[in-house]
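Re: export button greyed out
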Amino acid sequence: MSPAIQNQSSSFAMAIALLRRDLLLVYRRRSDSVTVLVFFSIVVSLFPLGVGADPTMLRLIGGGVVWVAALLSAMLSLPRLFSSDFADGTLEQLVLSPQPLALTVGIKCLAHWLATGIPLALMAPLLGLQFGLDSDALWVLSLGVLMGTPILSLIGAVGTALTLGLRGGNLLVALLVLPLNIPVLILGAGAVDAAQSGLGAGAHLSLLGALLIMTLIGAPFAAASALRISLD
Amino acid sequence: MQVNWFKYAAPANFFPLAGKIYPWFYVFAALLAVAGMYIGFFVAPTDFQQGEAYRIIFIHVPAAWMSMFLYLVMAFYASLGFIFNTRLSSMMARAIAPTGAMFTFLALWTGSMWGRPMWGAYWVWDARLTSELILFFLYIGFMALQAAIDDPRRGDKAGGVLALVGAINVPIIYFSVKWWNTLHQGSSINLTRAPSMASIMLWGMLLMALSFWMYSIAVILSRVQCVIAERERRAAWLQHIEPHTT
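Workaround output, generated via the alternate export path:
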């Protein structure tokens, strides 16, 4: 086997091993994932208490409320992406390993998405139901969260990597990442609105998909260089 | 003739240059501001639709221009510093951020002062207002990140990555906000002013924009001097120029 091919296959093997390890860690700390979901549903249920229980208004704001809550929940789970690996030195070894760091970051984001994004997407229609969204809108909501959460994980990875080990890091991550996530919110909540008003959510979801592809291409490299800076 | 393009990339050479030229930019800024204000307040006619209140655009529009322009300049310097590892570029980015944030705030503030008599509301969720607000958050994030990192070189590089990511995102944010805006509310309110602006008004605005530009240069140069002095306080060349700093 030529060295290049060997290198490629070892990268692949490393990626699989890292994904398995991260998912195993998530499985061992199940309560962390549950906490995110509980936070998600608590934030959503605060809104009717705050703005009143008028069904027509709730139907209007439902999509946006669930999306904002999903955004905040994904935000809340971001520290798990790197912080424990940073604390025990694993992250340093990953940075030093010969495999491309952007790939490592991408795999970690994939694991993060599998552990938080998919549960959020499964939970979202249930919460949308409480706001009286119809079934079309619920499908669009779920699909939108499914497509939007990887963007949140990837952009969040850049933010957490930049603030690794800083005091007040978590708050700072929110400050850095939330403005960058505004397009995801607009497109995701807009898709639900469009589905509800009968316009069809295709345009919004297509743009969300385009944003996902762009983020997939760019964010791992940005997060990788941010990690190198933080671990310098 | 051999020109050394990189001479002033060294803080030791740039520090005295900045100190020498920045007072001049203050002078230009003041002169242009006096001319612009004079045109704005005494020469430009009263707008037949908006009355006297429109005169705030002589501050508002140039401030909004500068806020966006300075973000680009800041991202440019931050990425230069990140890519070529030049210290001075990152220091410039650090010096630009507060001025950019100030102009963003000024644009938002004067905008709401103008909106109250014109629209009957201090704030509407117009696309431009919203994206200007997000720009303000981006500036604050950049400054907060740099303030949280104690090691100046790490702060420079982290700021470089953040400014680059932000600069790529700015158009996406702008268009998504614009699109969101047109979906959620009709274009009953838009910021286009009187159909055709009297050329004297345009002159006033351009003079004010130039004045703000000169002011930005002056204040950024004097701030970058402070940043250099803080970073290089133990360097021999600085002791030589300014013996009092230690």
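Chain B touches chain A through 26 residues (CB under 8 Å). The button fix ships in the next patch.
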